[in-house]
Each structure stands twice: as structure tokens, then as C-alpha cells.
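Final report, results section. Input specification for complex C-07:
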Amino acid sequence: MAERSFKTEVQKLRLGAGEEFRGEGILAVTKALLESGVSYVAGYQGAPISHLMDVLADANDILAELGVHFEHSASEATATATLAASVHTPLRGAVTFKSTVGTNVASDALANLASGGVTGGALIIVGEDYGEGSSIMQERSHAFAMKSQVWLLDPRPNLPCIVAAVQHGFALSEASRTPVMLELRIRACHVHGSFVAKDNVRPAYTLKDAIERPLRDTSRIVLPPASYLHEQEKITQRWPAAVQYIRDHGLNEFFAEGAQDFGIVLQGGMYNNVIRALELLGLADAWGHSRVPLYVMNVTYPIVDEELTRFCAGKRAVLMVEEGQPDFIEQQVNTTLRRADVQTRVHGKDCLPMAGEYTGGVMLQGITKFIEQVAPSLLEGRPLPRAAKPATAPVPAAKEVHPRPPSFCTGCPERPIFTAMKLVERELGPHHVSCDIGCHLFSILPPFELGATTMGYGLGWAGAAALNTTETRKRTLSFMGDGGFWHNGLTSGVGNAVFNKTDNVLVIVDNSYSAATGGQDILSSRADNPIRATRNSIEKAVRGVGVEWVRTVTHTYSVAEMRDTLREALTTPVKGPKVVIAQSECMLNRQRREKPAFRQLVKSGQRAVRERFGVDPDTCTGDHSCIRLSGCPSLTIRDNPDPLRTDPVAAVIDSCVGCGLCGEVSHAAVLCPSFYRAALIHNPTRWDRFVAGVRARVIGFFQRRIERRLAGIGP
Amino acid sequence: MSGSPAEAPRTINIAILAMGGEGGGVLADWLVDLAEHAGWIAQTTSVPGVAQRTGATIYYVELFPGGAPDAPRPVLALMPFPGEVDVVIASELMEAGRALQRGLVTAERTTLIASTHRVYSMTEKTAMGDGRVDADALVAAGRAAAKRACFGDFALAAESVGSVIGASLFGAIAGAGCLPFTRPQFEDAIRRAGVGVEPSLKAFAAGEGLVISPLPPKPAAPAMAEPPVGPRLAPLAARVRATFPTGTVPIILHGLLRLADYQDVAYAEAYVQRLETLRVARGCTDRLVETVARYLALWMSYEDTIRVADLKTRATRFDRVRGEVRLAKDQLLDIHEYLHPRVQEIADTLPAGLGRWLLATGWARRGVERVASKGRIVRTSSVRGFLMLYAVASLRRIRRSTLRFVEEHSRIDAWLALVGGTAASDAELAIAIAECQRLVKGYGDTHARGLANYNTVIAQVPRLNGHPDAAATLRRLRDAALADEQGSKLAAAVAAMSIAPAAATATA
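Structure output:
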């Protein structure tokens, strides 16, 4: 099950009208879906919307009461295709995924859905993984909204606004027969706040109705000639209907509209930081009362021309605050004003950077630059805040601060796979390594530094497709996680390799979960899941599409076995695709299950053994080879206790979970004899005590002899 | 606008810099709960996701004085603005440095609460020598930048009461008095969260205590003091004190202790004799004696199987492991060693002639290799495993005849001769040569690589002799040898060097 349990939070989903909901933004979205009478929800997990999926999984009872169907989709394309249920019926449906990676995958289904349009409200909640903490390429979801003509909501980042956006999103979708995307940035997903709840709504028209009385309307299906009509309909009917709804319901907001002869146009998601910047410049107060006119686009696509021209008319200049690039909105603002012959000067990317996240400092500097140009007198009489100008002072402690990228957790079963690969490379030289998406991607970073490219989720083997020639006997190595494998890697990677007769090697990292997204179950998970079918074998699937050379290593921590298997795959004379399945359970999930069980066992007075590793500092010579082959957070360094030595010695800290890798590495790589494994026996039995007593007497006898030899040397 | 900017109520802004999985989220949640129960409006944001996996991350909290339930809500920012942060909490020292770099800490406004313990970065950990950054510089930079800086080992404070750092940092915030809440209010937030309440409260108190009465700063490490020696070494120690300059005595005594422990008193005496020979060499300086004393002691106590077995079987070692794994009184301990003696190590431990024969004789070597191809796990805490290692340690008696001993001592003699011979012409180069012993360390392949690097570096000495930069160049080569495992930096450094003397000749 997922990394975080939401069993307590889930109860918040039952709150009724008038009660206060407190919690994370993404939980508020979940509640808003139920208040909107949603019939089905689907999605693919990934930061920052993983919690939405995890909450729904934990809330299955509540969903069942409301007749809501919830799916963990196989991919974002699956999720989006799920919205097909709303094409002909009044069913309201919502799907969610990480963007833009998920939207990329979804875009085929999205384009088809958008072409025919929808009857019931169709909401796509995208977690915009942009800026700090993001793990993906920096692009914008905005382009997808433009190309498929779906509407894009970008609400102010507070819970009441986010909740309202969900509710309006469904209504807007129905009013304009168009799917609606709700864009939530990382911090908005995780912002803690509150809103006043409404009652949950059980939809009047149910899934049962849709199945029992199927509806169809060929004019909604993407086939000529309907597809040509769809394009016209988007422009002539759906767009105006959307604009009408947005205006009628005041989805976009105006603040202090007439306060100055200049103003700021902004994406809703930028609102809080724009207000803070204005507050620091003395142009707003803490409650958001601005002295500068603001036009807040809670809908960033389509742009409501009438509202924009109304806001700009009579103003000398406006600043467009639009995060990311290309500057789609700024271009549109310029076009709209030009067409309307409004002479307001449009600033934007001249004051703010074209690319990159609009962090606090960046926002403040951009707005300061704008105000200095249009109304410098407003800034007189008080010192500018420190961050209003680019920092000029040298960065303090520059060389003392190293980057600290994410890495494999303590005891991670994926680490030994790459340790083994390092050892194989010592024998066979460097290989081309094609990576995938997932925790295993950390192999690219130190200390392993393995991996040349990563082309997307499940595309590890596809990324090495071209490197397939009979002119060399050297093979390429690709990695893929179990998550990516089931997402699409089985077909796009394995099937492709079989069909194109590759001779190369794929390692499938099977840790029983979609681990990087928070430990959700997938088809091959080995735990029972009451609402999903697990335990479907990857090996069977691989063999099913025609791979004959398959090796499964069921304990990745045996570095020697892992190394030998990789060596065999890279050197065997057998031609054809070769797949190594490296299986061991994600340690984060395993510990979450085993730690409490262990504590319980100890508490109940039963015998229990905990293992951990250690390093003898007097035999460690401080070369740190072991760390270069591991990188485990629990394997670190400390001062050398030896007065004659200065290099720090390796040390294992108490967070060690005794996975065994340190010992395996020192054996497989013939490193050093300094590692020991300590087994701590809790609640030893009488027999344990008896044996220990005998040992202590015998060993003690010899240890006293050693002491006698050394007597008189030291004080 | 409500009043002039100076009087306007404003947020209290708190940034928590932590590493994923360290409990920064729990700390942020406590702060929110604390503030909300005190009638404040609170907002927290973070960027979890993959950053959680041990990467550096920021949790950001804003607090605003509350009003009536239907009063307008303030607009709170979702990320820290440089220069506008009241409290910066760093769960580790390098993360405190990161807060400084991001401009979050200012002298006008910021209370910096940072734990001084280190979670070393990958770069620091993987260095082949000592790659650690200067912790004192980080502390100094923090003190210089903040309005008030509270440093302390909050990790230790929490650990010593069986809790986690979040709780002791929460206590530190209370202790620093930088938030308008009382101590009981803080504690109630911990109680309401309901997880590990008792240890958390203890850690809270410990963290608070560290801020209210900080521990005195550790005194600067004193120069090496003379270690006490036992009666069997007393005569040798007296000889050392009589013969060698006072400044070099402590390190020589350390050497004596080590070698007597390693082999016997006679071995320690051989060490002193070697140093005495060096002492009278022409051009020998005190610094050279000190340097050689250190590295000679290390070299003479090279790590062979006998030494490893000896160290692993001692009672003091058993005690150390018990402490390290925090063995409780009612628990039992098993210790398993990971040993991998290969044919080379076995031959090393045999008498020199036999050892050479084994390495050179195909069938014998293959036979041993078959047996020694896999690593062994030895349970030292069992009678059988202990006696096995004890027996290996007993080979100490024949150590002087072993292949490894013969080889190491011939290398040592060559090294000492080179050092002594160079001292007359270039004392600094002699010191640099002596320091090159640092390259030879470890076991198995690591040792072989180190020795090869050592040989490569030492082979350059004849070309450097007489060159004004000789010592510096040799040290550069040594550092290059420690820069990467593949030896490419060293190869490049040697290649770059070959041009320099030629150019020097050309211009001369």
C-alpha cells in the first residue's frame, strides 16, 4: 500500500455542509470532487498529486457509499480515455496525473476527447511539477490546453479558491461541452489551509444507468466528417459558451481596478506571491488589499478578451505575470489589445525572467522593476526590501555547501544492482546504459554515475533501440522499473526489442511498488490488496511477448549473484533480447511494515533478532571504497580515532537496517575486513543464555591471554 | 490600507531546511497546530516528491495573528522571500549553509537555529582521503549572517533520549523565544499529535536547554600530547626523550605503543633505531623526523591477516561493538565478520620462501584459489569462529619470516633511504616523499592500487631532485593519486609534469 496512510484524513471527506475542513490542498480537491457529484475518478500517481490517489484508495468505503468508481489507471492515457464515459452521458468524471509528463502520455486520448467534446463535466486535475523540487523536464501544461482547446483553470492557491475551481470546472465543462484542466502547482497541492465544506452529492445519473441504457451519438465521435465539424464547433460554439460562463460567474477576478493608471495581469496561481511582493513594496497589506490594480486570471485559457480590454483600457501599462515559457499568455494579451486597438504598453518577460520558476526573490525583483518604470514615486520614502535587487554580496560559505540531490534510501534493494554493475564494468569496461524513470534513475548520480539517457517512463529499453548492430559483440544495458514496465514498457520496450531482434540487455527493477511515486501497488506487487488484483508476474509477461532469455534474481542484495547474472547477460553467446528481473522489496515500504511488527514482538517478550552492520575503526584505513560502491545514507564517515591517521574512517550509523549490502560488497569486491554484522537478540531464550555463557567463558579465557601479552605496553 | 507599514500586522515566516525523511514535515505540522490552537492563522507548504528521498528540501510556514472567525483572511506566501524570514531552522550544518546561500538569513531579522551535527554529502563521503568541508566556517558564516544564531547538536540531544531531531528543534524554537507562544503551548502541540509523545517531550526539553544554556564551544584541539606508556616501554620511551627533540616525542611514543601492540617491544625498538638513523642523516629537520615517525609507524604496522585477526579478537573490541550497537543489558550479541583472504593474503602469511613458491606454482596456487574464491563469514562471538581468528592472530610469532613482512620491510628500507638521501639536498622534498606513505593503505585491490600509485609517484623523484618546486610538485602528484580510483588524474598529472622540466631547460 501507499507510503502514507490517509485513514484519519479520509474521515474529513465525510464532513457536511457548514463544517470546517482543514488539511492539504490536494485533499481539499478530493472533498470538492465528492461535493460536485462526481461519478468516477481515475488517475496515475506521481508528485504532486500522489496524495489525491492515495486518499481515494483509502476512502474506498466512502466512495462506494456515494456510488463513485475509482481506478488506478494503467497510465495517464488510460486515465484520460476513462473520461470517455462523459462523452454521451451526464456523468461527471475526474482524472488526475503529474504534468507535463502525464499530459504528454495522455495527449492522444486528450485530443480525441476534446475533439468530440463532452456532455457530463470532465475534469483533468494536473499537478504542475515545475520549479524547485520538480523531478521532470521544465515545460508547461498550458500548451496542451491551447492545442486541444480544453480550458485551463489556474486558481489562486488557497483552499476556498481551489475548491471553487473544482466545482466551477465541472459546470464550465458542461456549459461549453469541453473538458477542463485544473492546474495545481506543487506548493498549492501541499498547502495547508481550510474551507467550509458542503454535503457530498450522490450523482442522480449513475454508472449503472449508463451501462444499462447505453447512449451513442455519432456526431460526438472523431471520424470524418464529424471531426471537421468538431473543429468548427470548438470555435463557434464551445469557446463562446465558455467565455460566457467565465464572465457570468466571475471566475476571473479584478482587484482595485481603478486605483492606478497601470496594473498587473496575473495567473491565479501567482497571486499570493504577487501580493507578498506588493506588500513588501508598501503597495498592499497583509489581507491582499492592493494599491495596484490586479486582474487575476483564474482561467488562463481561454483568455476573456472583453475582460482584458476592459482592465487595460485607460491604463498606461500592465505587467503580465506569467510563469514559464513560451510566454503564451503575454503573446495573447498583446494580440488581443492590438486587435481591440488598446494602446496599453504590455510588460512581462522584460521585467521578469523568460524561463524558470518565479520564486519570491524573482517575483519581487520583477515587480520592483515594473513599478520603477511606471510609477517610481510610489516607491519613494521607504527603503526597498533587501530582495528587491539582485544580490551582489558574495555567496557565504560557498565551497562548504555541496549539492544534495535525492538518492537511494538506507537499505534500498536497487543499490546493490548498481554496485554489481560497477563491479561488472571493472571487468568488462564501460557500457552504454539507458535509464528510465523511477528511483533507479538515481544511478546516474554519484557514487554510481551509471546511465547516459532517460527518455521517459517505461522507455528505458526503447531509449537504446537504435544501438542495435551486428558490427559489435558489445551489448547495451537498459534499466526499467516495475512501474514503468506496466505503464508501457512491456510493449514499447520489451515487445519492441523482441520484434526488432535486439541482442541487448534489459534489467527490470522489481521492488513490488510504484516506489518513486509513494509506494502504490501495481500489477506485480506481492502484497494482497483488497481492491486491486496483484501478484501478476513480470517474468510471465516478458516471456509472453517472446523473450526467451530471462533470469530472475530474487534477492538483489546478493551482489555476487547479481554481478554474475549481469555478466552472463552481457557476455552470453545466446542471441536475442535478454531480460534480467531484479527483485527485492522496496525497503521504505518493508520497514514501514516490519518495524512496528518487530517492536510489537519485542514488547510481547518474544525472541527477536535485529541485525545491523558496523565498521571496526582500527582496521578501516579510510579509503572509502565501500562508500563509492554503495552511497547508503547509513554508511558514512567519522573522525579517525587513531592518533596517527587523519583520513576519516567509514562508519555505520544506527539507522542501518542490516540489508546486508556492506558485507556482500566487501566480499564481492574484496574490499576490506572491517565490516561486521551484529545480531542483537532481544528477549533471548534460556538456551541462548546458556550458549552465551559457555562462549563468554571460553572466549574470555583467551582474551585474558591477549591482555597478558599486551600488559605493560600501555599505561 | 490599515495604518502605516510600520504598524501593519505582518506574518511570522519560518523556513525549515531539512533532508527528506528527517521529519521536517512533522516539525512544520507541529508549528501549524501550535499556532492554530493559539488562535493564529497558519499555512505550511513543502515540495515533497522525489526530494523526499534523502535530498535537501524546504518546508515553509507562515503565521499570522488571528482575528474573529469571519474576519478577512490574510494572503500568505507559498515560499520564502530572501530577507523576509524570521526563523530559519536547519536540521544539519550544511543545510544551514544552504539557507545562507539562498539569502534566507539576515542580520535584521533572522533567528537561525541549526544543528551542528553533520550528515556528510556524497562528495565528502566518497573522497579517497579526507573530503570533509570546514564545519567551523559554516558556523562562523551563520553567526555572521544572522540576527541571532543558536547552534547546537540537536541530533545528539534527541538521540540521547530516544527521539528524533524534529522534537529537539521544536524545543530549540521554544527556547529561542522567537515565537509568541508559551512553553506549555509548544508541549501541547506534541501531545495532540499523539505519536511518541514522551520521548518527543524529553527531546523538546533537551533542545530547549541547548538554546537557553548552550554548551561551551569545544576548545581547539591541543597539540599532540605525550601518551602514557607502560613499564615495558619505559626504557625505550626514556631513550626517545633523550635522543629526540621535544616536539617530536609525542608522535614517536604513539608509534612505540602501536608497534609494541602490533608485534612486540623489540619491534618497537627497531622503529626507534630507524628513526635514530634518520635523525643523524645530513639535512634532517625536526619536521622530517615528526613526519617519518608518523608514517613509519603506520607502515610498520601494515594490515596483514594476523593484525586483522588480532584486533578482531580483543575484549576491548567486543566492548566497543557492544557500545556501538547500543546493546541493552538483557540482550545478547552475535558478531559476524566478513573476511575474504585470497591466495595472495594466504601466501603473504606464509614464510617467505613458501609464500613465493605458492604464488609461483600453478597447481598449488589453483588449489588454494579454489578454496579461497569466496568470502567467508566468521562468527567471532562463537567459540569456533573465535578460535579460528585467535589461531591466525597467533601467527604473529612467525610474522618476521612471512612473505609480506619481507616485502614490506624492503619497501620501508627503500623509502627511508630515499627520504634520508634526499634530506641533505631538499628537506622539504624529503618530507613530501615521507608523506607519500599515505597512498599505501587498505586491503586487496585497494592496497594494490595504492601501492601502484605510490610507485608511480616515487618514480618521479629522481626527475624532481634539484627542481625548486620539487616538494610542491610531488604533493600535487600525491593529491592527484587520491583524486580518483582509475588513476586518470595521476596519469594526467605525470604527463603534464614531463613537459615542465623540458620547458625549464629550454628557457635556461
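Residues 639 and 648 of chain A are 5 Å apart (CA to CA). Residues 686-710 of chain A form the longest helix (25 residues). This concludes the modelling results for the funded period.
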